[in-house]
Each structure stands twice: as structure tokens, then as C-alpha cells.
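Final report, results section. Input specification for complex C-07:
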Amino acid sequence: MSEGIGELLPPERLMLTPGPSCVDPRVYRAMAAPIVGHMDPWFTAMMDDVQVLMRRVFQTRNRVTFPISASGSGGIEAAVANALESGDECIVCVNGAFSERMAIIAERIPAKVIRVEAPYGRTVDPQDVVRAGKGKKIKFVGLTHGETSSGIVQRIEDYRKAADELGALLIVDTVATLGGVPLDVDGQRIDICFSGAQKAISAPPGMAPITVNERVEKYMETRKEPVRSWYFDLHPAMTYWGKDRLYHHTPPITLIYGMREALRLVLEEGLEARWERHALCQQALIAGLEAMNLEMLVKNAAERLITVTAVNIPSGLNEKTARKQLLDEFNIEIAGGLGPLAGKIWRIGLMGYSCQTWNVLRFLASLEKVLLDQGLRVPTGAGVGAAIHAFREAMQPAGAGARK
Amino acid sequence: MSEGIGELLPPERLMLTPGPSCVDPRVYRAMAAPIVGHMDPWFTAMMDDVQVLMRRVFQTRNRVTFPISASGSGGIEAAVANALESGDECIVCVNGAFSERMAIIAERIPAKVIRVEAPYGRTVDPQDVVRAGKGKKIKFVGLTHGETSSGIVQRIEDYRKAADELGALLIVDTVATLGGVPLDVDGQRIDICFSGAQKAISAPPGMAPITVNERVEKYMETRKEPVRSWYFDLHPAMTYWGKDRLYHHTPPITLIYGMREALRLVLEEGLEARWERHALCQQALIAGLEAMNLEMLVKNAAERLITVTAVNIPSGLNEKTARKQLLDEFNIEIAGGLGPLAGKIWRIGLMGYSCQTWNVLRFLASLEKVLLDQGLRVPTGAGVGAAIHAFREAMQPAGAGARK
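Structure output:
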């Protein structure tokens, strides 16, 4: 009865998209371990380990820190639904598809959502946030740290200050940044911070790490209205992840195994070393792309998201054909644009296990052939050459500058 | 920085709980395959395969048939949230923890929920449903096909009839039954049917198969109010799973690989053969338990859920100590009771890959030692003997009855 649907034989892709990233073989190996029950004492002890690791990666001492049993978008819903009661007012900084998503989810509570907007590819002005919320009772300011739809990163400190001026909570979406871009939940005083498994953490998709501070925990205990979503209600979920171990729902055991190993890998490398690796690979990527006469969407280098690079598609290029060739001929996947940027940009992710010097070179070399095949003028070897130069500059021993 | 948290080394448990079940090595192997992107043409073609397989297992031609990216409880929320708008009235048949959960989730929409109740371990009277809904505008009747909290199964046809009398939709939770107990979504005219991955389907937890008929699909297109949950909104999720392939959220690629292989295994065995295997193993289990002087919670054999057997804990037994011994000494996990049945029953699951003749024998033999160690009188070998007898009766060739 399953005729025609045979053995699973996926191709071996290099995912240079805004997620999912490639996964370290150690994570696959961990996930191949037989599952146990979700109330098994061995498992609940293992959950503690995951929480210890996750706190280190988030840089927080928050008790409520655990992976939600859903994708990153489920993390948005959990953050927003636990912070809001119907009729509450909140501000969402909207400058891309994922910040827009946060606004839409908040509206469904239903809450009054004030969108403080900037064009895709630009940061939201924190002063606009203060102006928009003045005199109002704003429950939270919602920020997307790294907007993968446009390759923008925003300075959390600036929005923390704005939220403080309004007496509001700060919710930060770090789906595209945790583990790849500097982040310090306690140091930056983020009230609710969530992420995704499948980006710079490099576990398979399906879990959303979240952390919530004491201020929010206290609020959750005194809400007048239940959280709209039972599944995303953090209070009972945390009684399961917390010391009471009361059953809430069956979590994805296999993905928790994978999350544990992925977090171990992050910490074995070290957060700072990992951030540096991501920064270096992007520098080399951009050097290579610019040497091939491609232009970045985000002009201000300080506002570029390290993990996802948005590059303008050169005129005269059939972008879908080009991406198809990259996939079919070189097994490399990159992403197109979303919403108003569809057809206008490519989004190249370098995250987690995908983010390696050799992958940057493989991509630039492959892209060179694709651009040439489409009739574009590309200086031979210039992309790869510029990237190699960037790597050599960064990697040579101190004091060896004269030899470059 | 991950010091003290070493290699993942889970014990090899035999899960005889109401889920998760043990997982076939073929499913682990499928999940060890490298992930690809969720927009990769190879992956979207593979999603079609999963849907074809899932329709066969649900026995439906419904277009909207796919796995939700959440555990079985997320399936409840998706079913309920897509069927309801705020202020709607619905009926939920409540006779256990999971049907109670459906009622709680519906109340959070917020909707008016009429609970038609029966004690744990009893079926809800379909006439009570009709009486409770008479003269009211009932949006749906919600039924938990197999209540794992008490080991009860309910006849879908009876509640379909009741829902028809009220002009209501029928939502059926088949988390504990799909793939283990006869079910025919189209034949039984179920409007919304959902399940879980980790029970008789025997994939790891983390996905909730759902199927929705045309009547519901049409309703979803004409709703006045958006679905309260963005994550569980079936309409955009289905544009991703449907032919449009528009991105909604990143699904758990690895779990979809596992789901595909688990569904293939279900269909290779054949639905009827699989139902028979589950029925046979439970017969043998019950024969064994009764031979050891244990009593079933559900007296009416026709109302017993085939996949989860609820057995009364004998007096004089420390049930937690007994379960701990089963786990520590024999690597077998069974479950205790929930809610009003906590401390009063054990729940023994025989589902999917866990449901094997040899596991029944291993469990009964292990339990005999545990009961003896606690000072209970158990006729030596009676449990195993009775189970073997049940297997021999069922397995002998036709016409060989005289030799038994």
C-alpha cells in the first residue's frame, strides 16, 4: 500500500539560506539514539542539562529557559501570547517579514498593535518607538534582532532604552542571531528572548529556545485572562521543564537530543569564537561578492546582519534560473527575497555548521560559473580571490602584516 | 563551557506507556539522513509523498491532510481553533484528561463549551450530547476516540449521528488510535480528525497528523474572525503543504523524514493486519494480567481501548516502587493514572513498534517478579502462561482448534 513511495534518499545540499542550516554529524548521531519516555527520570535529568546549556548560550540566569516544542514562529507566538491579554496595547518595530509576523500574531490575541516602521533593509528609529508610545500604556516593545528578510541587525540597547522610557517589556526575536551574533540576555536586560533551533544553533528545525525573566514570570502568575494558546502557555510548560515535572504535552524527544548536542557544540567552540567565525565568513563573502560587482542591499556595514547577507540581484539576470542552477549543478541552496524584496535580492545565510571558510569559497566559485553562464561579465576568479585575501588578512599571525 | 555535560547515552527502554512508543530502526535511519531546505524542490515533492501516505492511513481523500508541526496536543489546538470563532458554542464529550484538555483549549478561544460528561473509564452517552445541544447553535461535537487516561474507546458512528442531529461538525481526536484501532475518516464522516506521531504510528513525538474535509475547508475560507493562533492556522499552513508552496513556517524536516518512514511501515504491514496485531497483543496482555489476579478498570470489554489498557492497582502495593523496579531492573516503562485515577490505575500501552508478542511476554514475566517482590501472591508463571495460550489460540491454523 505504500507502492511508488520508496526509500528516503535526500540529496546532500549545502544550505546557505536563512535557515535551516546544515547540521553537524554529531547532532545526527545524537538524534539516532533510541527515544525514552518524556517522564523517564533519565530524560527529566537530561532536560536539566539542556536548560543549563541553553542558559549559557543565551547568557542568562533566568529560571524559565527551555526549548518550546515548535518552530521559531511558534517562539514568536509563545512570547507574544504570554505577554498580552486581550485589548492590551503593544509596539512592534516592523522592518521586514518576521517583525511583521510578530505584529500579526499580536493582533490575533486580539491586542492593539502600534507598528513603528522602517523600510525593508533599514533599522527602526528607537526615537520613533518612544514617540509612538508616549502617554500610552504599552505592554511591550517587540524587536526582531536580526531581520533575515532583509539582512538587518538592530542594536538591542537602543530599544531597551526606548522600552524603559515607556515602562514596557522588551521582547526580542533572536531566531537569526543566537549563537552567531553577540547577544547577552541578562546584560542587555531582555525580558523575553526567543530563538530557533535551525539557524546559528544548527540543530534541525522544530524547537524554539525561549527565556523569560523574573519580571515576566511574576506577570504570568497574576494575569487576569488565561494565555490564549494552551499549547504555548509557558506556565504549565515550565512546570514540566521545572522541578515539578508535571506533564503538559509530549515534547519532541529526538529534537531535544539534537538540541542538547548542538548546544554542546556551540559551547565547546565558545560563544566569542563562534561570533568571530560568523563575522569573518561574512566579511570574506561580501569581499567576494563585491569583487564580482554585486551590491549589498544594506549599505551601512554596521547594520548588516552577520548571519544573513542580502545582495541585490544584478540587472539582466534571471534570478530563479540562477538559483536553480546553483541547486542542480552545485547542490547549493540560497534564498530569494520575501514580500517587497521578492525578485530583487538574494539572501545568503552563513550560519552554524554551514558557516565555514570552505563553504564561502565553494559558493563564490559556483556563483562565478552561474553568472558567467547567464552572460554577465565577471572578472575571472575575482570573487574567490577576494575572499581568500580576506581570510588571509584575518588569519595571519599578529605582527605579520607586512607579508600580506 | 559545556563541562560536566557529556556524550548523550540514553538507556534502551521498552516503552509500554500511552506514548511515546518505541521506534522502528528504519525510522531512526530515515531521520539520520541530512536535512534539506524546506523550500527545496526535492523536499516539497517528498511532502507530497507524506500526504499520499497519510491519506491512506486516515482512509480519506481530503485535500487538507498533513502533519502539524507540534505534538498531539497541538493537534487538539489546531482542530479547535480552526473550527471556532469567539463566542461560538460547542460540545465536548469529557470522560478523561485528554477530552478535558479539548474543552479547556476551546474555552480559551474564547468559546462557550458545553461539557457532556461521563466518569473516567466510562463512555459518554450520545443521547446526552443530543439533549445538551438541542435548540442551540452547536459549532462542533468534540470526541476523544481513545481516551488514554482511562483506556476507553468510543464508537465514532454514535457521535456522528448526534452531531448530525445538531447540525454540528464532528471533531475526533485519534491520537491514541490512528494506526492501531479501526478508523475510517471518510467512511465515518469525520469533519476534522487529528492524531499524534508517537503512539500507534510509532514515529518520535513532535508532529500531529491532521485531516479536514471540504465542509471545514469552505468554512475556513469564510470565517469572519482570523484563527486565534497564527501558528495553528491551517489555511496558510496548507498553502505551504498544498500546491502553492508558499512559506508559512519552517517545519521539522527530520521529523517529517521519520513520519514518512513510519507511515510506510504502517502501510507495508497493512492497516487491517496492524489493527489485528494490536487487538491480539491486548487480548494476551489482559489474559496474562487477569491470570495474575489483576483487574481491568474498564469492565465492558467492548469499550476497552485496544492500544492502552487500564488496570487497577492491587491493594497493598506501592505502585510507584513497582514502576520504579520495572524501569530500573527491566528497562520497562509503564504509566500511572492521571487526575482522579492517579495512584489507582496503571496504564499499559501496546502501540506501534512496542506492540509485539515478545514484549507482552517480557512485560508479564517482569511484572510477576515485581509483584512477588512486593509480597503479593501470584500463581507462578500464570501470567506468561495465559498470554502464551492466547497467542496460540489466535495463531493456530484454521481447523486446528482441536489440538489446542
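Chain A is about 40% helix and 15% strand. Residues 25-268 of chain A form a domain with the Aspartate Aminotransferase; domain 2 fold (CATH 3.40.640.10). This concludes the modelling results for the funded period.
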